[in-house]
Amino acid sequence: MRFTSRLIRGTLVQRYKRFLADVRLADGRIVIAHCTNTGSMMGCMEPGSAVYLSRSDNVNRKLAYTWELIRVNKTWVGINTMHPNRLVAEGIERGIIRELGGYNNLRREVVTRPGTRLDLSLEGGDRPCFVEVKNVSLKVDGAAAFPDAVSERGTRHLKELMRLKRRGHRAAIVLVIQRGDCDYFRPADEIDAEYGRWLRRAIDAGVEALPYRAKVTSKEIILCERMVTRF
Q1: Which 8-state DSSP code applies to residue 85?
Q2: What pLDDT digit, counting tens, does each position of 53-70 carry?
Q3: What is the pairing mode between strands 129-136 and 170-177?
Q4: What is the mean pLDDT of residues 209-231?
Q5: CA dihedral in degrees (92, 96, 102, 107; nearest 10)?
Q6: Do the Cβ atoms of 46 and 11 come closer than 8 Å?
Q7: Residue 15: Cβ within 10 Å count
Q8: pTM over 0.70
Q9: Which pLDDT band, with edges at 50, 70 and 90, does 192 fall under?
Q10: How far apart are CA 10 and CA 29, in angstroms?
Q11: Which of 182, 163, 169, 164 shows the shortest CA–CA distance to 224?
Q12: How far apart are CA 130 and CA 153, in angstroms?
């Protein structure tokens, strides 16, 4: 996934009200950027950090800027949660996520039952495969960890994947790790022990957990390799 326009570098002043961030640009101006990430962003919102913003030409948008990346130590971390679905779709179509190959059709935002929606559905193979995608930006020691806040919604998605698996479908969760400084993936039990328990139950029930590392730069974000999972 290439950014459609050149990103704008700045310095983070603060993130607030979950969806907003003040960023100082090179010319000294402070602009308000939209933050798509609803999690805690633990470790990824230190004031004074270098960041990259994208700017929209849509005059109808309330906020022209969107916060895309933050520099954590020497690593660029992608924090825009709007990108992982596209990254996974591209990864499937290009054969990077080989575990999900062999399907002729990919649908997005699929309603599996009233009030429940998953990110992707793959069709045209031996049996449909339902896929939920999660963005991972948290690092704990050497691990990429998810979630970074209590996620009741994430637990509901795991239960739905388990239900679909019981009905004879394939079911998978793809965890997009938008940083390159982690050695493996694990659930963040110290933050949401309930999610960790259900992730383990889901895997035991046959739901496929696929953590994939993304290469993050100011020009593009691409999935590059599957990471080891440790529990």
Answers
A1: H
A2: 999 988 889 999 999 999
A3: parallel
A4: 96
A5: 0
A6: no
A7: 23
A8: yes
A9: very high
A10: 10
A11: 182
A12: 17
